[in-house]
Amino acid sequence: MIDLYFAATPNGWKATIALEELGLPYVVRPVNIGAGEQFAADFLAIAPNNRIPAIVDHDPADGGGPLSVFESGAILLYLAQKAGRLMPRDVRGRTAVTEWVMWQMGGLGPMLGQNGHFRLYAPDRIPYAMDRYAKEADRLYGVLDRQLARTGAHVAGADYSIADIACFPWIITHKAQGIDMTRFPHVARWFATVRARPAVAAGTAVGRMSRPEEISDEAKRVMMGIERP
To answer: Full-prediction pTM beyond 0.90?
Structure first.
């Protein structure tokens, strides 16, 4: 059994989609990031960067005690290795999938996060920041569109993999990001294909009912690290 420390965010949904796709049994341990539960000592012992998701595997492959993993990309790699699926076995395929997971972790996620922050959450509208991150979001969509034009079916090649799972939840946010998907037809095609997968629907359904429609100013300050509860 795997304990999943989770909030309904793009990074959280990476973990739930992977767990659903791989058929691994898990229990959701909600973390209220608006109330600052990510700063609690027991959570920091699992996730020292005070970010969700994190997992604790009570049945690791080495037969030892419970094993904790933090950072969503590391969780995807760990789960794929544990299940022996969603990661190619050949060196070239494995390298390609790892590259695109790292691209998402280092580029797509952080830059879309900044774009969303300055568009939706920042207390002051800062034109320079808004323009900078809007352009970077647009550039990254272009990178992904060209990659999908080359590979056809999926982000890292012909087969569905954790690279697709890493990217998909962030593309869910395209409307909030101000992205016109008609400009990125290969991304739009891929997005529709991945969204139609039953495990993806199940994974992204986790936590939606508890996700608030409006986030209070206090919760925003806690989530942005401006203040601690």
So the answer is: yes
Count of C-beta atoms within a 10 Å radius of residue 195? 13
CA–CA distance, 18 with 77 (Å, rounded to integer): 10
Give the number of other Cβ atoms within 10 Å of residue 183's Cβ.
Answer: 12
Q: How confident is the model at residue 126 (pLDDT cuts 50, 70, 90)?
A: very high
Strand 26-30 versus strand 54-57 pairing type = unpaired
Helices (H) then strands (E): counts for the chain: 10, 4
Tell me if residue 56 falls in helix, strand or coil. strand
Q: State which CATH number among 3.40.50.1980, 3.30.300.30, 2.30.40.10, 1.20.1050.10 fits the domain covering 91-203.
A: 1.20.1050.10
- CATH architecture of the domain with residue range 2-85: 3-Layer(aba) Sandwich (3.40)
Positive or negative CA dihedral for 183, 188, 190, 194? positive
Whose tokens are 């697709």? That residue is 164
